Amino acid sequence: MTVTVLPGLVVGVLLVGALLCALSPVPRAAARVGLAAGVISGLLSVWLAASVWIGGPVAVTWWDGLPLAIPAALAVRVDALGAVFLVLLALVPAAVLLYAQSYLDGQPAGPARWFFSLFLTLVAAMSLVVMSADWVLFLFAWEVMTLASYFLVIWDWTQERHVRAAWTYLLTTHVTSSGILVAVCSLSLVAGDFSVGATAAALAELFHRLPAFGHLLVSFLVLGFITKAAVWPFSFWLPEAYRAAPTPATAVYSGLMAKMGIYGLVRVLFFMLPGGGQPALVWGLVIATLGTASMLIGNIRSLGEQDAKRLVAQSSIGQIGYIVLGLGMAVALSGRAPLLSAVAFAGALYHLINHAAFKSLLFLTVGAVEQVSGTLDLRRTGGMLKALPFTAGLTLLGALAIAGTPPLNGFASKWLLYRAAVFGGFELPVLAVYGVIAIFISTVSLAAYLKYFGTVFLGPEREYPAGRRGPESPAAAASLGVLGTACVLLGLFPAPVVQAALAALQGAPGTALYGAGTVTGADVMGAALGGAGYQPLMVVLALALCALLVWLIRRLAVEPVRFTEPWFGGERLPASEARYGSEHLYRPFLARWAALLRPWWQPSFHAPPALERAIDLDRWLLGPVYGGFQSLAGLAGRWHGGRVKGYVGWQLLATVVLIAVLIGIEGGLR
Asked: What is the pLDDT of residue 385?
C-alpha cells in the first residue's frame, strides 16, 4: 500500500465507522465500533505523519476539476504542520472514545449511537481540514465540522439552556466564517484558482499592489479563525456550548476543535502573509495583543466560576491565549529577530500540543465527578477523594501541568514563551509587558485549579444521590492514564516536540525570516538564547532531593500529627455550615477584578418576524400534525366505550370495507 492512499483511508475509516454506529442496534455495539474506527484511523494518521516527517509532504488529487467549471479540485496535501495536527487527531480521539465506553452506559440506544456517529464525523471533518490543499474542500470540511459539533452541543435538546447555547454557537461561527468565504473567493478571483498555494501568491501580490485590500482580506480570515479558536472577544459562545455538550465531546472540542482555528491562523500568518515587513509587524502585534487579553480574561473568569465545566471551559480561553500570544510574537519578530521568532513559534505549537493533552484530561475528570455526584456545582461537591482516588490523582496532575509546574509539559512550553517575550522586549518593548502578564496569569491558573481540586476531592464527604456509579472502570482509568502519561512525557522530553514544531515552520515561505532552519529543538531548549537552558531531568533530580530533604526533616523534627475535632468557639456546627466552600475562595481578588468577570458583550440573535414564522415548524407543520393525531386519538377513545356489541359492529364494518376493496382491486386488474 502506497502512502498516497493513506489520506483517503483516514477519512474513509471514520466515515464508515460513523455510518455503522448510526445503524448499530444497541449502544454497546455502537461504542465498540466507534472505538475500533477511532483506533484504526488513528494508526493510519500516525503512519501518514511519520511518512511526511521521513519522506516529505504527501499530495493527492482525488478529483481534478469540479462541475460548473469551478476552478478547484478535491486535493489534499499533508506537510510537516499538518502531520503535527494529524498525530493529535490520532491520539486524543482514541483516548476519549475509550473513556466514552463507560460514560454512555445506561443511555438509550438512539442517543448513544448518534453520539458516536457524530463524534466520528467530527474527527473525520477535522482530519480533512488539516489535509486540504484546496479552499473548496477546506470550506466543505469546515462546515461539516461545525454542523457535527453543533449537533453534539444540542445532544440533550430537551433543555432550553442547551438549545440556546447551540444556537449561539452555530450563528456566531457561521457569521464570522462567512468572512473566510469572502476572502477566499476574492483571492481566487485574483489567482484564478482555489488552491491554497495560488491564493497565498495572490495575497502577496495584493499586499504589493493594494495593501489596504490585502489587510481587509487578512482581517476576514483572522476573524473567522479566532472565533473558532475562542479568542477574546469572540469567545462568548464557548462556556455555555462546552457545558451543554457531553463531556467526551467537550474534551475533543477544547483539545482539538479549537485548534482548527489555530491551524487556520498559522496557515494565514505564516504561509500566506508576507513575513518580515510592515504587514507582519502590524498583524503580529494585533494577534499578540488579542492573545494576551484572552489569556488574562479567560483565566481570571475561571476563578469566579462555581460550575466545574464552565471553570475548565473559561480556562480554555485563557490557555488558547498563550498559544495566540506565541504566534503573534513569532510573526512580529520575523525579520527583526529570527531566532526569537523561531522560539516563540516553537513555544506556541508546543503549548498547543500540551493543551490538547492536559485540557482533554481535565474535562474527562469533570465528567467523572459529574457521574458520581450528579452535579457540576462546586458548592455541592466535596470529599470525593475516597470515591475517585485515581481520578483525583490525575486531576492534580493535570492541574499542575496546566499551571506550568516543572517538570510537567505546561512548564516547558510556557518557559519558551516567557523567554521569547522577555528577550523580544529588546526589539518590541510591549512584548516584555505581555511576558510579565503571562507569568502572573500562570499563578491565577494554578489558583483556579486548586479551587477545582480542593472543593471537589478534599474536605468532608457529602451525600450524593443513591445509585450513582463511579466511572473508574478499566476503560475510563486507561483513558485518563494515557492522557496523564502524555503530560509527563511531553514535559520530560521536550526537544523532539520542539523539533517537530520547527520542521512545521520550515515549510513556510521565507523560512529564514523565522529562523527555523538555523536551530534545532535541542538548541531552543538549551543555550540558544544564552544560559544553561532547560534540563527537565535535572529538574526531576532536584525535586526528588528536595522531597527527600523535607521527608527527613519531618521524620526527625516534627511531632506526630494529632487529629482533633474543629473548634468553633465552643459551639457545635454541622459540617455544611462550617465548610469553606468554593464561593468563598478568592473573594477579595475577584472583587478587585469584578469588571473582567462580567460579560462585556453577549450578543442575542433575533430573526425578522417573517423569517421566524417561516422557520417555526411547530406552528405551521408539527403543531397541526400533532393536533390532528390528538383529534383522531380522542375520536378513537370515544368509539372504544367497552361495549362488546360496538366492537363486533366495527369488525363487521371493517370486513365489508375490506371485501369491497378487494373486489375493486380484482376488477381493476382485469
From this structure: 84
For the chain, the distance separating the N- and C-terminal CA atoms, rounded to the nearest angstrom, is 61
> DSSP assignment of 340-382, as one string?
HHHHHHHHHHHHHHHHHHHHHHHHHHHHHHHHHHS--BGGG--
Q: Cα separation of 125 and 260, whole Å?
A: 10
Per residue, the 3-state secondary structure of 632-663, as one string, reads HHHHHHHHCCCCHHHHHHHHHHHHHHHHHHHH
Joined together, the cell numbers standing for residue 617 give 415548524
Across 445-483, b (16+ Cβ under 10 Å) vs e yields bbbbbbbbbbbbbebeeeebeeeeeebbeebbbebbbbb
Kindly state the average pLDDT of the residues 448-469.
Answer: 74
Helices (H), 458-583: 474-492, 494-506, 511-514, 521-525, 536-557, 575-578
Q: Is the pLDDT of residue 662 over 50?
A: yes
Q: Are 342 and 514 in contact (CB under 8 A)?
A: yes
Label residue 363 exposed, middle or buried (CB < 10 Å: 0-12, 13-18, 19+).
Answer: buried
pLDDT band for 467, please (50, 70, 90 cuts).
very low
pLDDT of 17 > 50? The answer is yes
Residue where the block lists cell 457521574: 371
Query: How does residue 271 score in pLDDT terms, banded at 50, 70 and 90?
Result: confident
Distance in angstroms (rounded) separating the CA atoms of residues 300 and 317: 10
Q: Which of 305-319, 331-345, 628-642 has the lowest mean pLDDT?
A: 628-642
Cell of 96: 476519549
Instruction: Assign 636 a pLDDT band (cuts: 50, 70, 90).
Output: low
Give me the phi and psi of 470, to 5 degrees please.
Answer: -85, 140
Q: Is 405 exposed, middle or buried (0-12, 13-18, 19+ CB in 10 A)?
A: middle
3-class SS of residue 76? strand
Name residues whose C-beta falls within 8 Å of residue 176's C-beta, 6 or more positions apart in sequence: 223, 224, 227, 228, 234
Q: Assign 59 to helix, strand or coil.
A: strand
In this predicted structure, what is the pLDDT of residue 110? 65
CA geometry: angle 453, 304, 313, nearest 5 deg: 70
Handedness of CA 12, 46, 259, 285 (dihedral sign): negative
Split at pLDDT 50, 70, 90, the class of 288 is: very high
**pLDDT above 70 for 602:** no
Tell the burial category of 568 from Cβ atoms under 10 Å away from its Cβ (0-12, 13-18, 19+).
exposed
Name the nearest CA neighbour of 34 among 16, 19, 17: 17
Residue, of 413 and 644, whose pLDDT is higher: 413
Residue 328: its H or E element? helix 308-332
Percent of all residues in the chain with a pLDDT value above 70, rounded to a whole number: 84
C-alpha cell at 316: 480554555
Decide: 56 and 145 in contact? Cβ < 8 Å.
no
Q: What region, left, alpha or beta, does residue 467 occupy, with left being phi > 0 and alpha being psi -120 to 50 degrees? A: left
Helix (H) or strand (E) holding 77: strand 73-78
